[in-house]
From TrEMBL:
It comes from Jutongia huaianensis. It is an enzyme of class 2 (transferase). Keywords: ATP-binding, Cytoplasm, Kinase, Metal-binding, Nucleotide biosynthesis, Nucleotide-binding, Transferase, Zinc. Residues 127-161 form the Adenylate kinase active site lid domain. It catalyses: AMP + ATP = 2 ADP. It is found in: Cytoplasm. AMP binds at residues 31, 36, 57-59, 85-88, 92, 159, 170. Pathway: Purine metabolism; AMP biosynthesis via salvage pathway; AMP from ADP: step 1/1. Zn(2+) binds at residues 130, 132, 149, 152. This is Adenylate kinase. ATP binds at residues 10-15, 127, 135-136, 198. The gene is adk.
Length: 214
């Protein structure tokens, strides 16, 4: 069961990937974790990646792909894996397809969590956080008193990442760089789309229905 998660930032890819990992006993693999792990362990690939990061440059697609392929060939991924945040661009997807084909492998499913931009903007702009670490949402998890943390009484703030302008910029990058992957995997015949508006529980049931077909 080799799975790629697709969808806009804020659509819930990471959450669903975590739940898939737990239910099906396959690792949830994110590029952020792979980078951290390799740099911490001082691997050859990690050293190369760190060189780019220290210079403030983007890690090239091929190196990122090498790191991912190295990770998915570790023992715990023998029965499959769920990739979250990779591939992010068409060249990365092509590099992954090629590297897997060289090992006689291929991805089984690319699952897209489909959600309108406006829904994402509304969801994210409703988030509020407290410096104590508590998180809220003005509609879904409101504090007892508006704008005030239930736990410590401090004033709640909007994170920079959740500000509508920031969210819109991230969505623009997504539509330009990552959304073309939806067509790419459609052409490969492995795209499955779930409706992101139905909520986390229903969304996960829809994913399980897809994965349990085999
Ligand atoms: Zn607080």
């Amino acid at each position: 069961m080799k799975i790629i998660m697709l969808g806009a930032p804020g659509a819930g890819k990471g959450t669903h990937a975590g739940k898939i990992s737990e239910k099906y006993g396959i690792p949830h693999i994110s590029t952020g974790d792979i980078f951290r792990e390799n740099i911490k362990n001082g691997t050859e690939l990690g050293k190369k990646a760190k060189g780019y990061m220290d210079a403030g440059e983007l890690v090239p697609d091929e190196l990122t792909c090498d790191l991912v392929v190295d990770r998915i060939h570790q023992d715990d991924a023998k029965n499959g894996y769920v990739l979250d945040g990779f591939p992010r661009t068409i060249p990365q997807a092509e590099a992954l397809t090629k590297a897997l084909a060289a090992a006689g492998e291929k991805v089984d499913y690319a699952i897209e969590i489909n959600l309108d931009d406006q829904v994402i903007i509304d969801r994210m702009s409703g988030r509020r956080v407290c410096s104590c670490g508590a998180t809220y949402h003005i509609v879904n998890i409101p504090p007892k008193k508006e704008g005030i943390c239930d736990k410590c009484g401090k004033e709640l703030v909007i994170r920079k990442d959740d500000e509508p302008e920031t969210v819109k910029k991230r969505l623009e990058v997504y539509h330009k760089q990552t959304a073309p992957l939806i067509d790419y995997y459609k052409n490969e015949g492995i795209l499955r789309v779930i409706d992101g508006t139905t909520g986390l529980e229903q969304g996960f049931q829809d994913i399980c229905a897809i994965l349990d077909q085999k």
